[in-house]
Amino acid sequence: MITPPKGDYASVPLNPAGRQVAEGWDPAADAAAGEACRAFGAGGIMRLPTRLKIAWTDDSTLRMETDAGTQVRTFHFGRAGTADGAPSWQGYSVAEWLGLPPQGNPFGALVAPSQEASAARGAAAGGAPGGRAGPSAPPPTRGSLKVVTTNLRPGYLRKNGVPYSDRAVVTEYYDRFSMFGNDYLQVETVVTDPTYLTTPFVVSNQFKREPDDSKWNPTPCSTDAPLGTFHPPTF
Amino acid sequence: MRRCSLLSFAAVSAAFAMAAVAQNEVAGDWDQSGGGIFGFQEEFIDRGGGPDLGDYAGLPINDALRYKASLYSPSWLTVPEHQCLPHPGVYAYRSPGGLSIVKEYDPATQRLVAYRFYGSYGLARTVWMDGRPHPPANARHTYEGFSTGRWEGNRLAVETTHLKAGFLRRNGIAHSDRARMLEYWVRHDDYLTLVTAVDDPVYLDEPFVRSTDFRVDPRPNTRLAEFGGFANGGDGEGFGASDVFYKCVPTEEIAIERGRIPSFMPGANENLDMFSKRHNIPLDAALGGSATLYPEFAARLKPGSAAPAADRSAARPPRPTVPADAPAAASLHVAGQVWLLTIGGHNVAVQVGNEGVLVVNPGPEEIADAVSAEVAKLAPGKRIRIIVDTDDDIAHIGGNAKLASGTTPREQRAAVFAHENASLRIAQAGLSDRHSPTDTFFRGTRELYFNDEPIEIIYVPAAASDGDVLVYFRKSDVIVTGSVLEDLTYPIIRTDEGGSLNGTLEALNHILDLTIAEYRAQGGTMVIPNRGRIYDEGDVAEYRDMLTIIRDRVQDAVAKGSTLEQVQGARLARDYDGRYAAATGPASANEFIATVYRGSSAK
Fold first, then answer.
1. C-alpha B428, offset from chain centre
2. CB A210 within 8 A of CB A54
3. Are residues B209 and B337 located together in one domain of the fold?
4. Which of B100, B153, B208, B562 could hold B118 in an S-S bridge, CB 3.0 to 4.6 Å?
5. Average pLDDT of the segment spanning B397-418
């Protein structure tokens, strides 16, 4: 929830080039260069404290909004990605259901068509759908949604300048769970990047479903200086 | 209409589960997501060297746990009963090692019976898949808990109950033995993600949710990176570098007096702000709570923020912590020849063998017929030959007359053993002779040999009263404690009958002298408390710790000149009240503190 100290890339499999970029992070320079959204790209946005709104645009397009950084992600079903557009923070995302019929979503894996979901993420938790099914509807507990995102602008895995490049591929797996009466959205994120990473970078996060969007609070991208200094871990 | 929809969903879900086994299967060898020991890729400090003291940010802890954690001393781990603690089930997979999941089939039916989980720092764990129910509430608890699983679409759902008190984080963030855990294991391509939610009515304001990632380990003959490394001739580069065999034996690590439990006194932990200072965040943010989980709290962390401190008033009120399932009568096998009958909330211990039946604490008179009926089920045709009263409490001895009498007037009455002081008090209470013990003793231990088993009746002076005894079945390796150990509440110490706090603690420490844990601080000697579930050494130590820590806090306050009202107002036991305080009576929060205060003042 806070910006980590400069140089804190512990456990991120950076190669020497990646470490060099991380060590040179300058949040003021990013802001001045119009690059304040680097930490809000597809490779890092799901780790930030944000709420989500998820809705179907049409039968083959799912739209995910974040209030942190006011970003919009678009998941395209049933067709291959197009890499001919200009790279962007959110890139181009191709989605497929794992373990569900290829057309439609009659059993609801993530959100049913036209059903909206809003979700919140904090340091360790996150979101919840309102919409047609209502807050008391049991969450679908079947398959997973796989999303592969390419054509990205260079961004940050962490808000303190830990980089991924324009060659990065972000693969995400979304699942919904019901635990102790709450409905959770889980995303596992796998980032591969031949420019800055030695191996895939794997993290997972949860969002907790909320009854409505009353806490939705869009804020622009920002760069924040870290509050503390980095203390290398010792054992 | 809704019912139809659910039925349609279930049918399709089952079809899918059969069609995509390869995608779903969680069995196999798994490595940390980044590969190798300490190869996890998030929360490196938390999962590696360990979190700072006072780092509770993002945890939905309540005030009771915040208080408990703030007084936690890492030296607690030097106490002999805690030296071999394993990573509990709610934490085990946060460890840096690999993981192996094995399927076990019934050789006769060829059906899946269970998944066995090995590796990391946790204990080997079983997730039962054969539809068996969870044990009754009074069954023993373990650090790994009792787990059952089922497939929900493409994920394995696991429910775990019967956990011992353990920890969520290695800096004093504990969970109680009332905690439950739900897990989902989901495989995506070559990655396995574990999502866990822990709900604890004693210490959490809402479920604590987190996830852990693994990747396929394709190496054959891999050694699970468990213990070893530095200690057993390894190269020190990795914990998996040497023999994984690990048999922990407690030793005297430091010169610590018997029964001393390291814990900070209230207000004395000078390192509580270690985390907040290091990261320049407000102390109230570092000290966690539900508010710190959600995005809006980020504003509070901005330098110079005028946002209000974490709102702890929104925390939910205390929830009932006593298990709801309390059948009228239930029998549980404890160990060897000993059974626990729980009837109307009373624990009655029964030893069954060739010579007949021995009963410890028959219970009040109104349950005597139910006790007889349960004994008849356990030991058809056998007579009750011996009764032991652990004290003079009418809730223990009320059934003496009926149970000792036998079924016909011509039968020899059972022998009833008790300490002389208990016998005197029974006589003073004006009960009939048929309630009175037939055999008493004054000091030390009364020895019996019954049902091919040596039995010790051990006097513990000035404990809950001046007439308490323990009953130790040496062959079955079971101890029945009577009033010196409660499970459901604080102990009820009858100071007007010669009981004392320090005597009760001495009795608990004596029980710990007798118990021997089987492996990793659990199992081995079983202990039957006055009420509630079956204990072992780890549980007794938890109860002993609680009582010692509360005594030490009250003594500290007394030494500083605090009055009883001030001590009660300070709520010095608020980290334990949610687990042990009764609603009313001598085990209620205020009355128990008053008992401790009077005992401390008299010292």
1. 38
2. no
3. no
4. B100
5. 84
pLDDT digits (tens, 9 = 90+) for B505-543: 999 999 999 999 998 899 999 999 999 999 999 999 999
Residue B283 falls inside a structural domain: no
* CATH number of the domain residue B56 falls in: 2.40.128.20
β-bridge pairing A155-158 and A162-164: antiparallel
Which residues, including other chains, have CB under 8 Å from residue B282's CB and lie 6 or more apart?
B276, B300, B301, B309
Same domain for B362 and B232, yes or no, is: no
Are the C-beta atoms of A54 and A119 separated by less than 8 Å?
A: yes
pLDDT given at position A142: 66
pLDDT digits (tens, 9 = 90+) for B24-58: 789 999 988 888 777 888 887 788 778 888 999 99
- Per-window interface: A 170-209 vs B, CB < 8 A: 173, 175, 177, 179-180, 182, 184, 186, 188, 190, 199-206, 208
Q: Mean pLDDT of all residues in chain B?
A: 87
Name the residue among B152, B153, B293 with its Cβ closest to that of A122. Answer: B293
Residues (pLDDT < 70) of chain A are 79-83, 100-142, 232-235
Residue B602's pLDDT band (cuts 50, 70, 90) = low
Instruction: Answer yes or no: do B209 and A179 touch at CB < 8 A.
Output: yes
For residues B201 and B80, membership in a common domain is answered with: yes
Count Cβ atoms below 10 Å from residue A88 Cβ, excluding itself. 14
Residues B234 and B333 in one domain: no
Q: Please judge whether B41 and A203 are an interchain contact, meaning their C-beta atoms are less than 8 angstroms apart.
A: yes
Q: Residue B370: which CATH number?
A: 3.60.15.10
**Given A51, A99, A217, which is nearest B154 (Cβ)?**
A99
Eight-state DSSP code of residue A70: T
Asked if residue B420 lies in contact with residue B451, where contact means CB atoms within 8 angstroms, the answer is no
For B70-121, what is each residue's pLDDT tens digit? 999 999 999 999 998 989 999 988 888 788 899 999 999 999 999 999 876 6
Last residue of a domain, one of B179, B212, B241: B241
Domain count of chain B?
Answer: 2
**Domain boundaries of chain A, sorted by first residue:** 16-209
Beta-carbon separation of B41 and A11 below 8 A: yes
CB B298 to CB A12 under 8 A? no
Its domain, for residue B531, covers: 329-538
